[in-house]
Specification:
Blueprint (H helix, E strand, L loop, with lengths): L1 H15 L1 H12 L4 H22 L1 H9 L21 H6 L1 H4 L9 E6 L7 E6 H17 L8 E5 L2 H4 L4 H11 L1 E5 L5 H14 L3 E5 H14 L8 E5 L5 H11 L3 E7 L3 E6 L5 E3 L4 E6 L12 E7 L10 E9 L13 E8 L4 E2 L5 E2 L1 H12 L4 E10 L2 E8 L7 H14 L7 E4 L14 E3 L14
Parallel strand pairs: 3-4, 3-5, 5-6, 6-7, 16-19, 17-18
Antiparallel strand pairs: 1-2, 7-8, 8-9, 9-13, 10-11, 11-12, 12-13, 14-15, 16-17
Length: 461
């Protein structure tokens, strides 16, 4: 029955849906030499810029200010003349960012809850959605998963999985050969049921929020359960830190792949079987920029800035998605692909802590300290919160429900003081639970300062 379901699903969707035709196109091109994908990317960037100059008032104005008023002046390099687009500008210039021909593009509104829960509204269209789904199918294939095989989604977006009438939800699961589990409901009893569903259904792929997968993996280990392993686990919607990856791989007995993106720009990158976080150059152009909007060389950490090549209803050009990362040097991966790649992701720009002296501490340094170096057996969950330059609080949830031993508390305080360069004495706060952010994603570090890192400015011409 599984083979029949898989073949039937593939035949139906590949015949009737443009998304799957584009996925086949991406899969056919994924091993192309750099010259081929670079040329195609330049063509798509140039075409998008010509469209933006003709149809989008926001970009028409910015290009005119830089002396670009005719389409024949535009090349792919013209993109570097534009300033970075921030979430604030996306909200403030919403109408001006809409293309004049948006009504002819089967467009729709979408929102991102974001880390603060303050929604960012933007417009996408059918063409963008087709490329976005094609990219998901490409990335899924890197895990060995094929359309129609069994998949379990441990997801945290109710609008993606749990909206609509119950019958429609059940039909959707049946047609796609999937089971959907709500990452917002992670109580011990619910997780026991999730474990049973996964073990009974035996999915080829388990897809989930990174923190929800980590939490479920810890629960499996605490229960001493041995699951029949899926072929692969795909983590998304949050940073996958090394300790979490190891726990997930051990609990589920399967290799773990990390997928990266955001709701505004879709999926941007995914790990291959060799562990390289490859970008999709046919759908996105990714730049790493410093605080002045200047491009950084491979290996240097800066702001992840994305140009979405498939959304012409509301083009997002050089959009700052709020993450810190670095590009990898150009090379042919052991997997055989020569695609561009990220060498690492370093958390949210808003979660970089600012010290009283003006110095900065990367969020991952504190996460590594608490989750890896200290690795306290009684510590179930933690979150480091900065409310002022000299005020940092470590929120703790213990497995026993009791405070840490005095010696462990002192180890934590001493380690955090070291990370904060002895400028701040951290406070400890015990909690019964630490809920996820309104977007559904869990944050290990939270900076409540107005501007933890200054906004990127316009690029130099």
């Amino acid at each position: 029955m599984g083979l029949i379901h898989r073949v039937g699903t593939q035949l139906y969707f590949q015949r009737h849906d443009e998304r799957y035709a584009r996925a086949r196109q991406l899969r056919a091109q994924q091993f192309a030499p750099p010259g081929e994908w670079q040329a195609r990317q330049r063509q798509r960037v140039q075409a998008l810029l010509v469209h933006a100059q003709a149809q989008v008032p926001y970009y028409r104005r910015l290009l005119a200010e830089r002396g670009v008023t005719r389409p024949e002046q535009i090349t792919a390099a013209t993109l570097r003349l534009l300033p970075v687009l921030t979430k604030r500008e996306l909200s403030g210039a919403f109408t001006e960012l809409l293309a004049g021909d948006v009504s002819a593009r089967s467009s729709f509104r979408n929102t991102s809850g974001g880390s603060t829960g303050e929604p960012t509204v933007f417009v996408q269209d059918r063409d963008y959605a087709a490329w976005a789904e094609a990219t998901k199918l490409l990335f899924d294939s890197w895990t060995g998963f094929e359309l129609g095989e069994r998949r379990v989604r441990l997801w945290g977006s109710t609008r993606d999985l749990f909206s609509g009438p119950g019958l429609r939800r059940h039909l959707g699961q049946a047609v796609m050969n999937e089971r959907w589990l709500n990452a917002f409901e992670m109580t011990p009893d619910t997780m026991d049921r999730y474990v049973q569903v996964i073990d009974t259904f035996r999915p080829a792929l388990l897809l989930g929020y990174s923190d929800a997968l980590f939490t479920l993996a810890q629960h499996i280990q605490a229960r001493g359960v041995k699951l029949r392993p899926p072929r692969a686990v795909m983590s998304s919607a949050g940073n996958l830190y090394p300790a979490a990856r190891q726990t997930i791989a051990a609990a589920f007995g399967a290799p773990v792949f990390d997928r990266y993106g955001s709701r505004e720009v879709g999926d941007v990158a995914c790990e291959c079987a060799s562990g390289t976080l490859h970008l999709n150059p046919w759908t996105h152009l990714v730049e790493i920029l410093d605080d002045q909007g200047r491009a950084l060389p491979p290996g240097e950490v800066g702001r992840v800035t994305v140009t979405v090549l498939g959304n012409w209803s509301m083009p997002l050009l050089r959009y700052d998605i709020g993450d810190l990362g670095a590009l990898a040097p150009a090379r042919r991966c052991a997997c055989g692909r020569s695609l561009p790649a990220l060498s690492g992701l370093h958390g949210r720009t808003t979660d970089c802590f600012v010290l009283p002296s003006g110095g900065r501490v990367m969020a991952e340094a504190m996460i590594h300290l608490i989750g890896v170096e200290l690795a306290l057996p009684n510590l179930q969950k933690f979150q480091v919160v900065q409310r002022a330059p000299a005020q940092v609080t470590l929120r703790l949830v213990t497995r026993s429900g009791e405070p840490l031993h005095a010696a462990d508390e002192e180890r934590v305080r001493r380690g955090l003081r070291r990370m904060l360069l002895d400028e701040v004495t951290p406070e400890l706060e015990y909690c019964e639970r630490i809920p996820p952010s309104p977007s559904g994603k869990y944050r290990y570090t939270v900076s409540l300062l107005p501007d933890a890192i200054p906004a990127a400015g316009p690029a130099s011409a």
